[in-house]
């Protein structure tokens, strides 16, 4: 690619929109096309990254050079993203994940009857972005505890770190290159109080960058153009004026590459 500033980096991008089954032929879904996530995957490949693209119900052709994992539901997306994130420098959650799913999925097609239809009861889906931040926070604590104990490099247990009272080197061996993913990026669509709502969401979800889409003026869903403001964990913001989703993707990777440098 023109800039190889992501060479040697492994990045994970989620794209598209999840579907939550009601019965074998029906689902609750959303209008996400996957265009922004695919643009992120393409531009990351062009900048030299190893890219895992977790695609939820996207009908676009696979981007050349990316490893594509296809999923349908939020729970499948969670599994694929958390697995890929174990070895990732950065994760960008561009997918529209369903907040809720039906409590029960009928094994057979629900029939039309003369009686009133049964209501569909919903339960909350896991928040994958928040979970990524939580997993990393736990790992950071484990590393900090190791450093405070003067432990050797590479001795932080993947799940929670050493037990109190363990001597140096007693914890499980994991790669000693720090808690991954080093950069976590979320997306948010806000219609009002964009900055205040975005800032609160960034903090709630524990991500490093939050790309806040300005929705509601023929932007974002299903269109080739996007406009956004990227909020940073340090309290900064970067405005991205309306333009191709590729341009927005390149600004996101600029900010990710800066944080990885
Ligand atoms: O809370 P909200 O849905 O606005 O957050 C959007 C961001 O959180 C996106 O990056 C989306 O991929 C992620 N998300 C998630 N798991 C959910 C809901 C949203 O990872 N269950």
UniProtKB/TrEMBL annotation:
Names of the cofactor(s): Mg(2+); FMN
Any one Gene Ontology molecular-function term assigned to this protein's record: phosphopantothenoylcysteine decarboxylase activity
Signal peptide bounds: none
Alphabetical keyword list: Decarboxylase, Flavoprotein, FMN, Ligase, Lyase, Magnesium, Metal-binding, Multifunctional enzyme
Pathway: Cofactor biosynthesis; coenzyme A biosynthesis; CoA from (R)-pantothenate: step 2/5; Cofactor biosynthesis; coenzyme A biosynthesis; CoA from (R)-pantothenate: step 3/5
Residues that bind CTP: 99, 109, 126-129, 187, 201, 205
Family designation: In the N-terminal section; belongs to the HFCD (homo-oligomeric flavin containing Cys decarboxylase) superfamily.
Protein name per Swiss-Prot or TrEMBL: Coenzyme A biosynthesis bifunctional protein CoaBC
Organism encoding this protein: Microbispora bryophytorum subsp. camponoti
Encoding gene per record: coaBC
Shown residues in whole-protein numbering: 176 to 436 of 436
């Amino acid at each position: 690619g023109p800039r190889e500033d992501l060479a040697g980096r492994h990045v994970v991008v989620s794209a598209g929109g999840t579907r939550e089954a009601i019965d074998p032929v029906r689902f609750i879904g959303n209008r996400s096309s996957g265009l922004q996530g695919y643009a992120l995957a393409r531009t990351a490949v062009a900048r030299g990254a190893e890219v895992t693209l977790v695609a939820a119900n996207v009908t676009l052709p696979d981007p050349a050079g990316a490893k594509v994992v296809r999923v349908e539901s939020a729970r499948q997306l969670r599994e694929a993203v958390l697995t890929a994130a174990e070895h990732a420098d950065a994760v960008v959650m561009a997918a529209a994940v369903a907040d809720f799913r039906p409590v029960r999925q009928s094994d057979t097609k629900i029939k039309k009857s003369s009686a009133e239809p049964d209501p569909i009861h919903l339960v909350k889906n896991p928040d994958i972005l928040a979970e990524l931040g939580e997993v990393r926070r736990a790992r950071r604590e484990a590393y900090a505890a190791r450093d405070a104990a003067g432990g050797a490099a590479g001795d932080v247990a993947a799940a929670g770190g050493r037990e109190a009272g363990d001597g140096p080197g007693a914890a499980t061996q994991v790669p000693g290159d720090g808690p991954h993913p080093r950069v976590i990026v979320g997306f948010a669509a806000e219609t009002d109080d964009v900055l205040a709502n975005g800032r609160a969401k960034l903090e709630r979800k524990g991500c490093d960058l939050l790309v806040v889409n300005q929705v509601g003026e023929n932007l974002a869903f299903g269109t080739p153009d996007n406009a956004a403001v990227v909020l940073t964990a340090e309290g900064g913001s970067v405005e991205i004026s309306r333009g191709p989703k590729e341009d927005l993707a390149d600004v996101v990777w600029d900010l990710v590459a800066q944080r990885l440098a």
